[in-house]
Amino acid sequence: MSDLIETSGACGKCGHEFGFEYWASINIKLDPKLKDKLLDGELNVITCPNCQNRSALAADLLYHDMERRLWLQLTFSENIDEYIENGNRALADLEIMSGDIGKQMSFGYKRRVVSSYPDLIEKIMVFDEEMDDQVLELTKLFLKAKLHSEGDQIDEALYFNRIMMHPEDPKLKIILFNDSLWAPYNEFYESLEKTLESFDLNSDSSLRVVDERFAGKMLNELRMRRRDT
Predict the structure, then answer these.
(1) Contacts of 9 (CB under 8 A, 6+ apart)
(2) Which residues pair with 94 in a beta bridge?
(3) Which of 70, 116, 128, 171 is the 20 to 30 Å CA partner of 108?
(4) Residues 119 and 125 sit within 8 Å (Cβ to Cβ)
């Protein structure tokens, strides 16, 4: 079920104290409209009744998609490693208490930790496309390297938009990032997906961060494996 919390706080603009509600967790199978609000940037946005200032609340949020077996945890914790360690310990304890039923319920889950709303929304979009976020993060690295070799330095974060056909080449399937940068789907994503099959990445259902740093580690491991063969 989804969890709605009542609390109070001061407006960041005028200092007025007021009460408000926010979502600590959403189960989109039970409350699908909350997913739409999240993707539209309207979830956990509060309005001060005094000055009408609107602001996104920096509160942790769990996104749970039971059908896709997807568990996305947004946290604003300053110590992500400790947060993940405590979260995985709690999940392990719950699985032990639930016995075989708990193991069956946990099997096949993809659990991720993100630290911003844009990161959370991107994960949702990626899994809605039935893509692997681990492969996609590595795709981003390869795209940045390609652009750098062509003289384009990309310092901004890359965010997945959608899969589409190239507007000038209807036979070319591409992945669009940041509304303007793109990577060829077959040459980049599919090729990397096949390369990573031997890693058995999706057998791990623990909470973890899958981002550019993760992709860098994967790339180093790929290089080591190729060097040893």
Answers:
(1) 17, 18, 20
(2) none
(3) 116
(4) no
Q: What's the whole-model pTM score?
A: 0.91
Alpha helices by DSSP H, listed for 132-188, are: 133-149
Along the 229 residues of the chain, how does pLDDT read in single tens digits? 899 999 999 999 999 999 999 999 999 999 999 999 999 999 999 999 999 999 999 999 999 999 999 999 999 999 999 999 999 999 888 877 776 555 556 668 999 999 999 999 999 999 999 999 999 999 999 999 999 999 998 888 999 999 999 999 989 999 999 999 999 999 999 999 998 888 877 778 899 999 999 999 999 988 888 777 6
Under a CB-based contact definition with an 8 Å cutoff, are residues 29 and 67 in contact? yes
Residue 6 has which token pair? 């009542």
| C-beta pairs of 173-177 under 8 Å, 24+ apart in sequence | 175/136, 175/139, 177/140, 177/143
Residue count of the chain = 229
